[in-house]
Amino acid sequence: MSKVLLVTGGSRGIGAAVARLGAARGYAVAISYLRNRAAAEDVVAEIVEGGGQALAVQADVAQEGDVQRLFREVDATCGPLSALVNNAGVLETQMRVDEMDAARLQRVFATNVTGSFLCAREAVRRMSTRHGGRGGAIVNVSSRAARLGSPGEYVDYAASKAALETLTLGLAREVAAEGIRVNAVAPGIIDTEIHASGGDPGRVERVKEAIPMKRGGQAEEVARAILWLLSDEASYSTGAILDVAGGR
């Protein structure tokens, strides 16, 4: 029976790279997407054409009912969940904290924090030996912003990722004796579409000189770190936060 990997926000960027690499490593892969059905279907088609098994499910992780439906569809189509990558996240336009309204904060925290909690909850209910599961692994996609703060740009995003790192630490200790490992990766400046979402599509080029390695990272470099944390090679690692940030 194939191991089953669920990647939230798997239609583009880091999520899509994780889905492709996971399939290459032998996982049956399910991805969730919010709006871009065509991009999600392209990822699925690429995996299937390569001989893998893949499924795309539309779901807003900020909505509890959507999360429950997502996990039920994965159960029914792919089988028992082995691994979860909490990757879905949103980034709003760059601005200072004194310009932010409550609606913006609610959008960011609903997806980046509440969504990750809900998905982790559903994964634990399926994986934990306490609930009759066979164990598994969770990787949360944080950001170096959690410890740098992103002043003048995305302090709300940075704060949401700091909450995700605390979820990682607390949940890891909570379920360590139940067969589940929980870790996080903290990417730095990665060359994906998320910068355009924040109104700064040229951000990688603009800030690369501040990175010790003098370049932005690639989604595939983050994916390799995630797949290592999911693998048996990381069997004694839980509660870890692995920076993938070129030294920054």
TrEMBL record:
<keyword id="KW-0560">Oxidoreductase</keyword>
<dbReference type="InterPro" id="IPR002347">
    <property type="entry name" value="SDR_fam"/>
</dbReference>
<protein>
    <submittedName>
        <fullName>SDR family oxidoreductase</fullName>
    </submittedName>
</protein>
<dbReference type="InterPro" id="IPR057326">
    <property type="entry name" value="KR_dom"/>
</dbReference>
<dbReference type="GO" id="GO:0016614">
    <property type="term" value="F:oxidoreductase activity, acting on CH-OH group of donors"/>
</dbReference>
<dbReference type="Pfam" id="PF13561">
    <property type="entry name" value="adh_short_C2"/>
</dbReference>
<feature type="domain" description="Ketoreductase">
    <location>
        <begin position="3"/>
        <end position="210"/>
    </location>
</feature>
<comment type="similarity">
    <text>Belongs to the short-chain dehydrogenases/reductases (SDR) family.</text>
</comment>
<dbReference type="InterPro" id="IPR036291">
    <property type="entry name" value="NAD(P)-bd_dom_sf"/>
</dbReference>
